[in-house]
Amino acid sequence: MNEETIANPKTLNVMTCRVEDGLEVLSGKWKLKILMQIFKNPTVRFSVLQRAIPGITQKMLTKNLRELEAEDLIKRVVYPTVPPKVEYCLTEHGKELAPILDQLHYFGLKHRAYLEQKNRGEE
């Protein structure tokens, strides 16, 4: 966002709306954690996700996976085996989140360091 964008309320309003669209897709306690696991393991099974994300219930994992699939960020692949084997992977659209998640991770690191330094200064 540059100074021209900030100076133009109409453009800023459109950008705000787009940011809200993006945040809506990723909002909630679990979606970013699920996506990070799928980024780390390009093809991952349900049980692996459930073990990798402490505190998530089977119901919440299923709900969030369905929502991410509906947004076309992940793909559910069912193999015709007994018992059924189901894997999740990123779609091409979902892979577009990689630089955003990298930047969010980087900001998180810097922000945590900033807060720790600030808290040390107040002691």
TrEMBL record:
Transcription found in the keyword field: yes
Coiled-coil residue spans: none
Keywords: DNA-binding, Transcription, Transcription regulation
A GO molecular function held by the record: DNA binding
Domain HTH hxlR-type intervals: 17-116
Alphabetical list of InterPro entries matching this protein: HTH_HxlR (IPR002577), WH-like_DNA-bd_sf (IPR036388), WH_DNA-bd_sf (IPR036390)
Keyword DNA-binding appears in the UniProt entry: yes
Protein name: Helix-turn-helix domain-containing protein
